[in-house]
Specification:
8 strands
């Protein structure tokens, strides 16, 4: 069992190294020279076939200009959910986030991974893997955001930073649902990209389970007539959550 877990950790770390290397536009040849390793050794690191000593791992993180924790965010099967701060909804380690991007006319999927901090504070460490085709392959995400979650009884806040571009921040404000089986509804805010570079806010759903992406689901993600009326009447975006209570969980 211990050998299997070590192998999974090595593969996990290797996938992270590959993801960050490619996001920097570096070839194996280029990056191997930057960390003074052979191409064959770097390839083995990324494939998880050999373990990496801590000094090399620190060197890789420094060269990629990221914190070490972003390479070793492996979720141990031995972690018990009780060690997360008390919260009516965000008391698990994995959550599934969805929003509808009108620029590409598609649903965007993200996986949120929560890890408790070691200083007994209310803050929770967050890794968000944005732009997934499937939740099974995190290494194929478009962006990785890291930061903290601040949970309270009725509301939860996320403060995140893009790990490739530190100037890009993401803020998520979520109302904790009254029903534990209901997805949480909230607002995600940050800086938009093409076709405009400007502050934006998007309606988002966060679920404990993978949701069935049917018409009901799409309608819950999109702003409806009532939302548009509220924007026009109050000059602000007000996110209502009643539509999310009836969404189906994927079988």
């Amino acid at each position: 069992m211990e050998v299997i877990i070590m192998s999974e950790i090595s593969q996990h770390v290797g996938q992270r190294i590959k993801k960050y290397r490619k996001s920097r536009g570096l070839t194996i040849q280029q990056f191997s020279q930057m960390i003074n390793k052979s191409k064959a050794t770097l390839s083995k690191y990324e494939n998880g076939t050999i373990t990496i000593d801590i000094e090399t791992l620190l060197d890789i993180a420094n060269t990629l200009e990221i914190e070490l924790v972003h390479l070793i965010d492996y979720e141990s099967p031995n972690i018990k959910p009780e060690i997360l701060p008390k919260n009516t909804y965000f008391n698990k380690h994995k959550y599934y986030m969805y929003y509808y991007d009108g620029r590409i006319k598609k649903v965007v999927r993200s996986l949120i991974c929560l890890t408790p901090t070691q200083d007994n504070s209310r803050d929770v460490m967050v890794m968000l893997y944005n732009g997934l085709d499937t939740f099974d392959h995190l290494e194929k995400c478009h962006y990785i955001f890291a930061g903290t979650m601040k949970p309270y009884d009725t509301i939860t806040h996320f403060y995140l930073t893009n790990q490739i571009n530190a100037t890009e921040k993401m803020y998520i404000c979520i109302l904790n649902p009254m029903h534990a089986s209901s997805p949480a509804v909230g607002l995600m805010a940050g800086i938009g990209s093409n076709p405009f570079f400007a502050p934006i806010a998007i309606k988002t759903l966060i679920s404990k389970e993978i949701l069935e992406e049917n018409d009901n689901f799409i309608n819950a993600l999109k702003l409806n007539k009532e939302d548009h009326h509220m924007i026009k009447y109050y000059n602000m975006v007000v996110i209502n959550c009643h539509n999310s209570l009836f969404l189906d969980v994927k079988k």
